[in-house]
Amino acid sequence: MTAATAGAPASYSHRYVVVVALFVSCLIAANVIAIKIVSVAGLTLSAAIVIFPVSYILGDVLTEVYGFARARSVIWLGFAGNVLTVAAIWLAGLLPAAPFWPDQAAYDAILGATPRILVASFIAYLIGEFANAYLLAKMKVATAGRHLWARTIGSTLVGQGFDTLVFLVVAFAGVIPAPALLGSILTQWLAKSSYEALATPITYIVVNYLKRADRSDVYDRDTRFTPIG
Question: Which residue, 1, 15, 180, 194, is the most exposed by fewest CB within 10 angstroms?
């Protein structure tokens, strides 16, 4: 039985581990730098734009090569890594600063997130990533593995759409006026989706390399598409 019909390869290659490590690292880095608001080409965006879309690219690679079940495990691993990071930052903030260290206020301002922002971030991440993986896996079966570009871009449009919509609404509804909130949702959604579209050639190279190297090309024909396996 081959990986394409078995549902997932039996072993974990070092290449798979590298992709997982990069995925989790992108998520944690995005959460840390998201506090900074930047202006790019006249657009107001979170600094997380420099790295967060990469997690969707890597999520596409995981689902395309190793299947939804593997991607599901990695999504939860990324969630756990984010929770651990947030907990560590919070606990470190509670510890009394040394008398000669004057930067506690700066630490709190940059790394201290409100509970509402954290809840919004966690919910949006899970909904967006699972929507992305589900749609890509379903499209792969429906297209018999053809048109990778359509699967990666299409799933990203949906996944990033959910992620952006849920985060901004949960985090800022009632704080930011509705017209400005809608504008922010559209701007960030299009920026993130464009990022992945431009990275499509790189996605092709990585996917084709991993399929050959790990002899894995999973089609999720009989997979249970539930958040908990």
Answer: 1
125-150 tens-digit pLDDT = 999 999 999 999 999 999 999 999 99
Give residue limits of the domains in the chain.
3-214
Residue 198 tokens, joined: 């431009």
Q: Residue 222 CB: number of other CB atoms within 10 A?
A: 8
Structure tokens at 151: 């699967």
In sequence order, which ranges of 36-174 are alpha helices (DSSP H)? 52-66, 68-94, 104-111, 115-142, 148-172
Query: Residue 192 CB: number of other CB atoms within 10 A?
Result: 24
Domain 3-214 has CATH 1.10.1760: yes
Determine the Cα–Cα distance for residues 40 and 32; give it in Å rounded to an integer: 19
Using the predicted structure, report yes or no on whether residue 9 has a pLDDT greater than 70.
Answer: no
